[in-house]
Amino acid sequence: MLLFLSVPQPRPPGARTRAGAARVARWRRQRLRLQQLRRLRGLLRGLRGRPGAGSRRRGRMALCGQAAGAASLPSELIVHIFSFLPAPDRLRASASCSHWRECLFYPALWPQLRICLRVSPTEQPRLEFLMRKCGWFVRELRVEFAAENYLSGGGGPGDGGGADTGTGGEEVEALQLSARWLEVLRTYLELVLCVLVSIRNNRNLQKFSLFGDISVLQQQGSLSNTYLSKVDPDGKKIKQIQQLFEEILSNSRQLKWLSCGFMLELVTPTSLSSLNSIANTMEHLSLLDNNIPGNSTLITTVELERFMNLRSLALDFCDFTAEMARVLTDSNHVPLQRLSLLVHSVSVMHKSLDNMPNDEHWKALSRKSTSLRVYIMAFDIKSEDMLKILKPSIPLERIHFDSYITCVSGAIVDLISRQYDKFLTHFILMNDVIDTSGFPDLSDNRNEDPLVLLAWRCTKLSLLAIHGYTVWAHNLIAIARLRGSDLKVLEVTEESIDFDQGELADQDVDPVHNLIEQVSLGLGQPWHAVMDIESLSVFTEPNRHFYREMQSFSEDI
């Protein structure tokens, strides 16, 4: 007679409680993962040769056996091993043999692809290889085109070392810069074509994001159509790019996320008509391009009605009208949760602010979605225009000012701190001035500094970045003490900080050391001023910074 005794199995923590169901599932997943890792370690130990001490011949034979064993593994097992490794380790492991390299670009290993490219001919072969391998199956594709620094100024190594002077030298420099611009635009078009051609038949694409840095494509703030006409005289490449983009949109049956920022001649007012079949399932849409001429827009109110499932939206502020706000409050639309708006002086110059939403529209949007949050970036906007834009009922969570000519006033900062004290978490104030000896002082003729009031009123403030405005040392200490450890990021450039005469006159205390010590104590973490402004991407590449922040802001739902 056999007697079967059941051995009690270890019960996962929280198994008897309904609240512990999630913990049980997590515990089981961790246990399964641990078992897989143990099996993987055993497999790798079995492949590893163990030559005996003092026997070189046996060592060589073991290594040969190891290589042969690795090469004979089935593809499924190699892919499984790759799945445990980060991307750099996968590349190193694939160097072992051709069989492993063949498994490197298995679709399951590359669900997303994020590429940042310099607009340079040397990038094209690499891009072609990567897109040829992954373009047909990748689910999430993000491509950014980065600026070449040498285009921002005049001379380079080939400028003749400054031998030419006067009008002749200026003409030579202009010709050299023109030649470089032509090369950049020509390369840019080729890179964009490479990306679009490789994904035209991708049926798995779910997220598609393209960013083209306008500092590459613009000169002195306006697009040089002269250069573009020389590179593409008949407009054939531009037309091909636009047709490919529309073909991709029409072929994509799973696309949920579409984001295009500052892409030269890519999106047209008719592009979104290609999304007719999936418009009602799109969850994110961002179309940012301040170069659209006249009163034309990339999306109309009628088109927006088709996007009933949008949870996040990013547009030029002048394109976001009162009618669009009304459409988003309709009952057949899901509540919008993230709205990013770009206010650019170029758009304000050519388009009217008369059609923007009023305070009642913002109230209706907030009632429709209590979790709605807004992100605004303002490029060189006058104070009177900002006063029109900043309606009291906007649930403003982030605001970024970037100025070249028009400075932000203390009244605007004070208004923001009073109206958005319940929502504001990010406040960025950048002023790209040439003369660093005379930064504007926001606290001028005021009893209280507007930045200190901002820190006092906005209790959710977690990021504050300032350059090009005078920040007094004692006010900076007050800001750190008011927000404490909740202020995760405090970035103030060294040249923006000023000291009272009394602080400078005290011979017993080093004012700079005292500032660093007091701010660090207030924040509860080590702090120092930003010494090199070029290290701040928010200053050197404001468009790219806004685009990336908009992406993360929209994903944080």
UniProtKB/TrEMBL annotation:
A UniProt-annotated Pfam family: F-box-like
CDD domains: F-box_FBXO33
Sequence intervals crossing the membrane: none
GO biological process: positive regulation of protein ubiquitination
InterPro entries on file: F-box-like_dom_sf, F-box_dom, LRR_dom_sf
Domain F-box: 67-113
Keywords: Ubl conjugation pathway
Protein name (record): F-box protein 33
Originating species: Neovison vison
